[in-house]
Fold this protein.
Amino acid sequence: MGAPVVAGLVVAATLTSPASAAPASTKLASGWSYSQTSIPAGVADGAELAIDQKRRKIFVTDADDFNYKDPKSGQVLPYPHPLNPKVAVLSADSRKVLRSISYNNLPTTTVPVSKTIPAKMPMKQIPVGIALDTRAGRVLTTNAETNAATIVSMNARAATPGDMVKSKLDHPMGIAADPTTGRAYIANVTLDEVAVIDTATRREITRIKDIYSPSFIAIDSTRHRVYIGNADIKTKGKTNYLTVVDSRTNTIVKKITTAANSRPAVDAATGKVYAASFATGEVAVIDPDSLTIVARIQTGATPNKIAIDSKRRVAYTSNLFKKTFTVIDLKTNAVVGAIPAGVGVHTLAVDERTGTVFSTQFQSSNLTVLSVKRG
């Protein structure tokens, strides 16, 4: 079958099958060591987090809403209780909670009680997805349940209605920011579009269309690239791919076939893209020049997110259902092993200065702090 074309550019290609690395072992390879602990995150239900390296701050979204997700079955049940939506701010050095940014002043939206209960109830703006515009000092969030997003100053104590993004959003999942351009990218899963937002005005610039079920997003400012994951996990005849967009023109450059529900991260040192499949555990390694998969790493896990330590040449996946971290040696693309977390680890980020990994815990008020040393 021939590759489809968008704006005169090839957007899909047949890939050869590069060699695959071995699955993770139950412990780290000889010579490698680790330590981990838990610290309070300043939230009721930590979802995603992001680190501002220059300001030495960690920002954590509090995803506490009216839904309870059973950690074993994944079933969502209504659980009405008082809500206090916010973004917690921690010190990356002292690991202490410094303050929070309240979302209580934002307008509420009515949502169904559940799929089986037609009645509706008011829902506050619950932040889940997060990104940082570090140049302008802004925190960007996608707001669960309400199909909205917020852009607020890092120094604010509370978000205001004027901080709401002025764009039609529907099931906004991933959000990413390019501080060099002041643009944000919001994945609208059910609209099959990514909204491009000016972080200063909070207004929509344009939309990138023809991306089926866009999920999580990674930015390569140097190469003017936006990498968009795809959450197609239920459709018959699945089409799973990573979309590559030119951020200067907001046009699709290519769609790279990947394992289902792959979620990208960029290695700042090499520009390589590591796309971790939540469905299969495979991590595809993508060359930024040829835009082809050059290696496949089998984690044997459930990587919710992947984070890259470019300086130390290590990658980490947070494996939500396996309750582990997978450690990958980027020098060899080999899995070093799996570290038991004891809890479902959700979203992780690496402190570039120290190499410390911070991860939210599923339906928990704590963060896991992980330190790994190379053998």
Observations:
- The first strand starts at residue 5 and ends at 6.
- Residues 20 and 296 are 5 Å apart (CA to CA).
- The radius of gyration is 20 Å.
